[in-house]
Design brief:
It is a single chain. The protein is mainly alpha-helical. The chain has a single domain (2-253), classed as Leucine-rich Repeat Variant. The protein contains 12 helices and no strands. The protein has helices at residues 2-9, 12-36, 41-66, 69-76, 83-103, 107-110, 112-125, 140-156, 162-165, 173-188, 196-223, 227-253. Helix 3 (41-66) packs antiparallel against helix 5 (83-103) and helix 3 runs parallel beside helix 7 (112-125). The longest helix is centred in the C-terminal third of the chain and has 28 residues, at 196-223. One of its GO terms (molecular function) is actin binding. This is Formin FH3 domain-containing protein. Residues 151-252 form the Formin FH3 domain.
């Protein structure tokens, strides 16, 4: 624990984020070049996989640091802004995943490092909206998290929830499970006490419009075979039905 605090208090953790920033930019440049021209795809793919390997090592180290109690308090502290660069990385990894899946001769093995990185990022994000500490008021961290999604979406010119929803298309079951858990955590905790069902309906529809609806058929097939997908999907459906019933009751009262 002392070693973790030393890492948090010196430049060690900044080194990882600077490396992520540098390699993420390089990866984005390769993706942009590949999008503009189909030449030298093999070389571009090789350079891309090298960047992804560096990013995987950095994310793995950050995960081990942030999964500790003092590390996680540092991670979620809005003043540190550690959440934004990991969300930005998640967007870039999603883009790289699609490119490798479509262009690699062995996509399953080549995307392993991407999935492991995405999994570690998602596992750090899942508890964030509901993390409780004396220094944070109700919904403060959820508001901070949604604001971080807004910031990255504006910078990347993307839908703010896309980076989470796209992970549902992964072949790695743990990535899918944690993406579902994060979606449920966000939906379950939005809104004021008097209008919770309305706020949940709004952000649920935002997830559906961001691509969640396109993944539903596959998720339902997976849920028939895997309990870890069935449980969060059942939770999603049950609250969806309950919110719809509450909305109907609201209209009846009027």
């Amino acid at each position: 624990m002392t070693d973790i605090r030393m890492v948090l208090n010196n430049e060690g953790i900044i080194y990882f984020f600077k490396t992520i920033e540098r390699k993420c930019k390089r990866l984005e440049d390769i993706l942009r070049s590949a999008d503009q021209s189909n030449t030298n795809i093999t070389k571009k793919l090789s350079n891309m996989l090298m960047c992804i390997k560096y990013l995987y090592e950095c994310v793995s180290c950050l995960y081990e640091i942030f999964r500790t109690a003092p590390g996680y308090r540092s991670f979620i502290n809005p003043k540190n802004s550690f959440v934004v660069p990991l969300l930005s990385l998640l967007v870039t990894l999603n883009d790289a995943y699609d490119f490798i899946r479509d262009n690699s001769n062995s996509p399953s093995s080549d995307i392993n490092d991407i999935d492991h990185s995405r999994l570690n990022i998602l596992k750090l994000l899942v508890p964030l909206p509901v993390y409780q500490a004396d220094e944070y008021q109700d919904h403060e961290l959820l508001t901070f998290f949604l604001g971080s999604l807004d910031y990255v979406a504006a910078f990347k010119n993307r839908n703010r929830l896309e980076c989470i929803v796209v992970c549902l298309q992964s072949e790695n079951l743990k990535v899918v499970e944690n993406s579902l858990n994060l979606i449920n955590t966000i939906i379950n905790n939005v809104g004021s006490e008097n209008h919770e069902h309305v706020d949940r309906i709004i952000i649920r529809n935002e997830f559906l419009n961001a691509g969640f609806s396109k993944s539903l058929d596959n998720l339902r097939q997976l849920s028939e075979r895997y309990e870890e997908i069935s449980q969060p999907l059942t939770s999603f459906d049950e609250l969806d039905n309950a919110d719809f019933d509450s909305l109907e009751d609201t209209f009846r009262e009027k």
